[in-house]
């Protein structure tokens, strides 16, 4: 099994920078894990809970794990 680890500073950094690549690797049966080094706070809007929900949904859409 091919495993890929993508590391980003904040939630959504990976999706914005290389979301297409993540989706492509997942579609080719790579086991893709997204790792955020922070929860993205402080943020002007939203909350930690909302950010984590959005991050989980984005990973699901791309076919990756978080």
Quick gist of this model?
By secondary structure, the protein is α+β, with helices and mostly antiparallel strands. The chain has helices at residues 13-27, 48-62, and strands at residues 3-8, 31-36.
Strands across the major sheet, in which order? Answer: 1-2
Assign an overall shape. elongated
Contiguous low-pLDDT stretches (5 residues minimum) are none
Derived structural class = alpha+beta
> Helix and strand string, N-terminal first?
EHEH
Computed Rg: 12 Å
Strand content: 15-25%
Q: How far from one another are the termini?
A: 18 Å
Into which percent range does the helicity of residues fall? Answer: 40-55%
Q: Give the count of helical stretches.
A: 2
Number of strands: 2
Let me know the largest β-sheet: 2 strands, parallel
**Taking all residues together, what is the mean pLDDT?**
94
Task: Please tell me the total number of domains.
Answer: 1
Can you walk me through this structure?
Helix 1 packs parallel to helix 2. It is elongated, with a radius of gyration of 12 Å. The mean pLDDT is 94. The relative contact order is 0.26. By secondary structure, it is of the alpha+beta class. The chain is 45% helix and 18% strand. It has one domain (3-62). A two-stranded parallel sheet has the order 1-2. The protein is built from two helices and two strands.
């Amino acid at each position: 099994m091919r495993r890929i680890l993508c590391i980003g500073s904040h939630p959504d950094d990976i999706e914005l920078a290389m979301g297409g690549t993540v989706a492509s690797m997942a579609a080719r049966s790579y086991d893709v894990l997204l790792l955020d080094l922070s929860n993205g706070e402080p943020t002007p809007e939203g909350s930690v809970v909302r950010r984590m929900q959005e991050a989980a949904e984005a990973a699901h859409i791309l076919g990756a794990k978080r």
